[in-house]
Amino acid sequence: MAAVLPEDRADLLFHSYNGDGVTIQGPSLLVRKEFAGKFSASANYYIDEVSSASIDVITTASEYTEKRTQNSVGLDFLHDKWLLNVGFTSSQENDYSAETFSLGVSQDMFGDLTTISLGYSVGNDEVGRRGDENFSEPVQRQQYRIGLSQILTKNLLIGLSFETITDEGFLNNPYRSVRFLDGASGRGYSYETELYPRTRTSDAGAIRFRYFLPYRAAIHGEYRSYADSWDIKATAFELGYTHPLDNGWIFEANVRSYSQDRAGFFSDLFAFSRSQNFMARDKELSTFTSTTLGLGVSYDIVRSGWKFVDRGTISMSYDHILFDYEDFRDLRVQGVAPGEEPFFNFEADVIQVFLSFWF
Amino acid sequence: MRSAYLMRLIGIALLVAALTGCGGIEPWVKPYERDRIADPIMSFDRNPVSSSYMHHVYEAREGARGATGSSGGGCGCN
Question: What are the Cα distances from residue B78, in Å, to A48, A95, A271?
Answer without folding.
Answer: 13, 10, 27
